[in-house]
Specification:
mainly beta, seven-stranded mixed sheet, four-stranded antiparallel sheet, elongated
Length: 122
């Protein structure tokens, strides 16, 4: 399983970015996907998550109303649309996936991408 993020960069406060995560999961099935972030000197925190099946979503309070998580199940991709960005959104953003091996669904595995830097200038 491999997760590859893209879409990070430098943006001014109030601007927008769209992060993408492409998952290579041959032989596995994705259950949940999420975006986490880790700012300078901070612990990694959950930004948004989306579950398989009903595509229910969950957001950190700090990003509600500004960020939107979505997924393309056919492509095993997950996206994070980030609007009205603030300097405090500056962080390395990580893609996360919880997967199960096809035929062995009782055991789940967790995978992380390498991270993509998002920098918001004031």
């Amino acid at each position: 399983v491999q997760l590859v993020e893209s879409g990070g960069g430098l943006v001014q406060a109030g601007g927008s970015l769209r992060l993408s995560c492409a998952a290579s999961i041959s032989g596995f099935s994705i259950k949940d996907m999420a975006w986490y972030r880790q700012g300078p000197g901070k612990q990694r925190e959950l930004v948004a998550s989306i579950t398989s099946g009903d595509d229910s979503t969950n957001y950190a309070d700090s990003v509600k109303g500004r960020f939107t998580i979505s997924r393309d199940n056919a492509k095993n991709n997950v996206y994070l649309q980030m609007n009205s960005l603030k300097p405090e959104d500056t962080a390395v953003y990580y893609c996360y996936a919880r997967v199960v091996r096809v035929g062995y669904e009782w055991t789940a595995f967790q995978y992380w991408g390498q991270g993509t830097q998002v920098t918001v200038s004031s």
